[in-house]
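[audit] Reproducing an earlier prediction to check determinism. Same input, same settings, fresh worker. If the tokens differ from the archived copy the diff job will pick it up downstream; this log only records the rerun itself.
[audit] input (240 residues):
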Amino acid sequence: MLARTNLDHTMHPLPGSPPVRWRISDGLVPYEEAVATMEAEVAAIADGRADELVWLLEHPPLYTAGTSADAADLIEPNRFPVFATGRGGEYTYHGPGQRVAYVMLDLKRRRQDVRAYVAALEEMIIRTLQSMNVRGERREDRVGVWVRRPDKPPLPDGSVTEDKIAALGIRLRRWVSFHGLSLNVEPDLSHFTGIVPCGISAYGVTSLVDLGLPVMMADVDMRLREAFEETFGPTRNDLV
């Protein structure tokens, strides 16, 4: 199987494709409302009634369980609402201070290759972090984007500690993607202790602020958009 690190990390559309709609929601969007909106948008994109869409938002504090979630990894089931979701992956946390990007792209207009799509999402995050002088890295055995933490005690095997700064979880329907990624800007990192994030207990989680970068969400959004356009192609503001 081809490793993600060996893939072409861009996924531009076919010539003549319209720009991807770019939407940013203010306030905290309830999870069920977001899922209902995604369902409707994905159906419209698959039917050719709507252009592709990236939707940036924040959620109130909650946990989601992906299709591979192990109930034992939900340590505090009564701490926040828990939602079963059709995305891939295990348990994750969403909440204020975390930028969620729901990415709805028609891979028939790009490449019908799930691993290449995941690699491109990782590339988008890595380029976003790079623009803020943070080195994000892939790991073949762990989906998501990681940062080395030489400032923390090493792992038991002597290797440098790594923390997760961005999580990915996707789903495809008729080759249209939905769900997407979450980047920790300034969430309450203690909220991750109610789960085993993504089923991985040997590593921690971090955020841009935890790394010493007190950035504003609007600045992160600008950098995400630039990285998306480099990786996936042009965008336009979505008028809703």
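[audit] rerun output stored. Observation attached for the diff report: The radius of gyration is 17 Å.
[audit] end
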